[in-house]
Each structure stands twice: as structure tokens, then as C-alpha cells.
Amino acid sequence: MREHSYHEDKEEINELLRQYQNLIRGVSHSFIEEDDFERIIDYYDEKDNLAEALHASEVGLEQFPYSSQLMLKKADLLIATRKYEEALAILEVAELYDSSNIDLYILKTDAYLALDQQPKAVDLLEAALQLFEGEERLELLFELTDVYDDYEEFEKVFDCLKLILEEEPNNEEALYKICFWTDFTGRNEESIRLHQNIIDEYPYNEIAWFNLAAAYQGLKLYEKSIDAYQYAIAIDEKFDYAYRNMGDAYLRLRKYKEAIEALEKVLELSRPEDVIYEAIGHCYHRMGNYAQARQNYKKATHLNPEDSKLHYKVAVTYMLEKQWQSAVKNLENALRIQRNATEYNLAMGECMQRLNRTKEAIQYFGNVVKSKPKNASGWEALIRCLLDAELVEEASEQCVVAMNKTINKPIFIFYYSASLFMLGQQKEALLQLEKGMMVAPKLLKKFMEIIPAILQNYQVVDVIARYKKGRKI
């Protein structure tokens, strides 16, 4: 039956086209109906022959000069060929004959927007909303949301979607869109009230439950969001985005086991993604299961091998297990992608130091202080490495540079003091120690880590004791 119908339609349109060609050549005086002209125009339009479609609309209007429908067809083609002023002119005429056709307002809106006349488009649509009801009114509201979106009036986008859902609570397009705009505008409280009302009327609407959960999540009410996601999943057990967001909510609550279960469900229901494996890896990482964390981070790297952060995370799991050489291999991958990343260079420096490759360690720590001279962690790592390698004089010099570059961070006063003690410059070392104790006594522990035997020096003990008498450490 379908095949028979297709052949009939094809023969019919071919006959129409034959009659049309005869008409424009003046070969015969065949009469073509108004709606047949619409079919001829649509035929050429679908074939992307806009010039012929436009010509057919003009021929049709010669035969039916008062046809608002043919005027709309012509205006649509004029807009497609960027003749916006001509389109608006013919739409003004069409409105005189039929102002109740919704396409008239949509085409006018398209022309105004193309001419960058957004206020006129908004005024037109807002006025048209008073003329239509039901599906046509909703169509105009969607059109208005697009106008507001294009011109970055985002609060009004939310308002339009809210109006749509108040009129048609089960409108899927509006439900999907308002979830994004709730997050974007931060209007979570309104979204909660709106979706609670929808759920009261339609308790099995899983998208409404999802949106309610997302709004709770936006307010960091994670327990409530999880409850709402559970309802969405109960209605649609294959709702992968609900599992995804629920996993994030569990993660925020540090419920890592539950987060893993939810995120693994996402992998079952949709194609694998690096961000999901990374999130699962993070959960295992926080649980202290570094082998499982690493396994998931590696799966993420296979899906996104150019994400340096993933290679770094694999390396960190090795470092936590003191597998320095394995960590180095993964840090090399990370640094290949992002050479100057501070944390990668610091991690590589630590690995080299643990492997007794001091020269290379100094090089990596040096990379950090060169690229980020105000970064205290880079200077601290470099100075400690120099001190551990007994390159005390160089460490002392770097302490002075670090103090200048970091605007006298107190930690470097203590390190400078330690280096001076190690160089035998006791008088200056004691002055620096006292200075450090005055500004940041809590950092004394780091000083002691470098030279624990210093407490055998009665003058050091005296400085600390005198300070304790005056202030509490």
C-alpha cells in the first residue's frame, strides 16, 4: 500500500510540474489550484532550488493575488535568500488578509532578528501571545525563548519556559530546557516550587523529578536531591543522567561507595566517558584504594589520552604507593602535554629526589620557580632539595631570592636560618630564627625537620624559650 501511494504521489507531482511548466511557457491554459501551487513551491524548496521555488510563488500570486498562504511561502523564501526587507513588506500585506496564521508572526520574527531588530521581534511575539491559545501559544513562547536566548536576556528565557510548563506541565521540550536554565540563572527555589506542583499533578513524570533533584543539588541540598533522583530512577530505571547526577551528589557527601555504584550504572546505560571513569577513580582514591583508582584513571586516559590531568592522577596513585619509577613514566606523559604545569613539575621533582636523582630534581623544582616565581611551594621544594643534597650554600642563596620573590614569606626566614646554622654563621642564623619566631611561630616545626639536632644548641633553645615567655606558640 505504501509503495502504491508513493508512486501515485510521484505521478501526481510530476503531472503538476508538467502543468506548471506549460503554464509559464504559455503552452496551455491549464488551471492550477492554490494548494497545488503550494505543493509545487514545496517541491522546489525541498530540492534546494530556491530560485525556482520563489518564481513558482510569484506565478502563484499572479493567479491568486489575495492568497495569504502563498504570500507566506514567498516571504519564507525571501528570508532564506536574505531579502529581509522584501519579506517584511509582503508579510505586512499578508496580515491584511489573514492575521490569525501563526506562521506570519514566526516569519516576521525571523526577519526582525536577521535585521538585528530584537526589540521589534519581542514586541511582536508578546502581542501575538494575546491572540493565540493552546499549542500555538506554546509555539510562540518557545519562539520567544529563542529570541531572549540569542540576545542574552537569560532571566526571561527562564520566565518563558516557566509559563509553558504552567500551561502544559508535561511538555518535554520545556522540561529539558528549564533544567539547564535553572542551573544557569541560579533560580533553584522557583524551580523547586514549579516542579513540586508538576509532580503533585503528574507524580510519574520522571523529568520533573530529575529537575527537582537538580534544583536541590544546585542549593547543595544533596540528601534531598538524591531522594528525588531515586524517584526518577524508580520511574525510568534507564535514566542515565539521573544516575550520573546522583553519583555527583553522593561524591559531594563523601559517600564514595554509593557514588561508585551510581556511576558504574551510568557506564552500563551509556557509552563510556573519561569523566565517569575519572570520577570513579577519584572515589577509590579517597577511599585509599589506589590500585582501583589507578585502574579507572587509566581507563579515562585511554578515552582521552591528551588530558594531562589524567596522567598526573595515575602518577599520584603510584607516588602514594612509593612506586617512584612508575610515577615518573606517567608524569612524563603529563609533562609532554603540559610542560610548565606547576603540580606536574613538583611531583616529578619529588620522584627524582626519592630516586636520588638530585640534579634532575633540582631541574624540575627550578622549572616551577622560573615559571611561577611567586609560588612559595616551588621555592620550598627547591630549597629543601638543596638542603637534603647538602648544597647548603646554594640553598642559602635561594632562600634570599625566595624571600624577595614571595614578599618575605615567613617559611623562608626559617629555611634561611637553618642554612646559616649549617654554614656555621650562628650569629646571623639566630637573628633570622628570632625574626621567624616573631612573625610565624607555628613554622618552627619545619625548621626542626631540617636540623632536629639544633635543640642541643642552648642559644637556639634560649630564643625559643624567650619567645614562649612573651607569647604562646
The CA-CA distance between the termini, in Å, is 93 Å
By secondary-structure content and strand pairing, the structural class works out as mainly alpha
Pick out the low-confidence regions. Answer: 1-8
| Basic shape | elongated
Specify the biggest β-sheet.
none
Number of strands: 0
Instruction: Estimate the helix proportion, in percent.
Output: over 70%
Average residue pLDDT: 90
Which value, in Å, is the CA radius of gyration?
A: 36 Å
Reading the helices and strands in chain order gives HHHHHHHHHHHHHHHHHHHHHHHHHHH
Q: What is the number of helical segments per DSSP (H or I, 4+ residues)?
A: 27
Strand composition percent: under 5%
Q: What's the short story on this structure?
A:
The protein has 473 residues and is mostly helical. The protein has helices at residues 2-25, 34-46, 50-63, 68-80, 84-97, 102-114, 118-128, 134-150, 154-167, 172-185, 188-201, 206-218, 222-235, 240-252, 256-269, 274-286, 290-303, 308-320, 324-337, 342-354, 358-371, 376-388, 392-405, 410-422, 426-439, 444-450, 458-470.
Characterization of this structure:
The chain is mainly α. The chain has a domain at 408-473. The protein is 78% helix and 0% strand. It is built from 27 helices and no strands. The chain has helices at residues 2-25, 34-46, 50-63, 68-80, 84-97, 102-114, 118-128, 134-150, 154-167, 172-185, 188-201, 206-218, 222-235, 240-252, 256-269, 274-286, 290-303, 308-320, 324-337, 342-354, 358-371, 376-388, 392-405, 410-422, 426-439, 444-450, 458-470. Helix 2 (34-46) runs antiparallel to helix 3. The N and C termini lie far apart (93 Å). 38% of the residues are buried. Mean pLDDT is 90; it is low at 1-8.
